[in-house]
Amino acid sequence: MCSESKKIDVKIPEPALRRLPWYLAYVKLEKSLGEEYISSTQIAKDINIDAAQVAKDLSYVQITGKTRVGYEISSMIEV
Predict the structure, then answer these.
(1) What are the residue ranges in the chain where pLDDT is below 50?
(2) How much is the pTM?
(3) Burial of 48 by CB count in 10 Å (0-12 exposed, 13-18 middle, 19+ buried)?
């Protein structure tokens, strides 16, 4: 019985790969301040990037948010 791990071949653009650590550092900071959810608009405003770009970058790594609620910070950090 052989167990194979599924490999997902996702092409993430290099600029998005460079921005992902910024998002991680930012949400870790927000979590330390007691936040549980964060919106792409809030991330974009504080990092000075377009909110649509933030949402697109996060979608590359299957991070999804809820409309009018935002992204769950704990699951963002885990991913």
Answers:
(1) none
(2) 0.81
(3) exposed
